[in-house]
Amino acid sequence: MDLSKILEVCKEVSIKAGLAIMEVYNSCTDMQVEYKEGDMPLTAADKASNQLIVTRLLSEFPEIAMLSEEEKDNKERLQKEYCFIVDPLDGTKEFIKRNGQFTVNIALSYQHKSILGVIYVPATEELYYALKGQGAFLRTRDGKEKRLFVSKRTKDLRFVMSNSHGCEQMDRLLEKYHVTNFVKVGSSLKGCMVARGDAEVYYRYNPTMEWDTAAMQCIAEEAGAIFMQMDDTEMLYNREDSLNAKGFYIINCIENKMTL
Hints:
single chain, alpha+beta, 5-stranded mixed β-sheet, 6 helices
């Protein structure tokens, strides 16, 4: 499997999807918001991004299975060693709020582990990407690229938290450790902040889905972060049940692990 080629295609199509998203974002027309099961919003941008990504990836790599938030789940993917895991618009609620905190997430899993991650931020034109064993990188709007590394802080820790999904456990954690240095951010941007050294701690108790975390996990780990489920077990992908029921945490180093 030519992972370098797959990475380049994922980067390219994530940017094209981002352009499609921004067309809707910047238009004066209605975003055409619908609601899926669980009162989750779905917009014209979700659909346009999904169509671009899924069509391109399946055309280029028909041998690889596909799991996308906006596609009907084909359980035949469970028989494949490789699987794309896609969130065509992560942070739809932030998109609707027009705060710019939304991303395009594309990951590739191999034997249930995330080995490739691409996260594109349409509003800022930032592109985060990583291949297992080859480091994590950020390409900015001006075309400059840099390798990402987590911070080395073990004091005055900076926390990132969900903008739209608060919970009692997170409130208790902040109180227990007297945390005052935190910022609320939407989508997979939180994991990117840890990866680039702008935060040290991201705890998520609420359930998420595979497509919310797969790309972020690879990027964070390749930048040196620790990414585990709340019970300290490894997060696996291309599972029969795509719900990340146990929650997860991302920290820059083991010294900063916290417990309730």
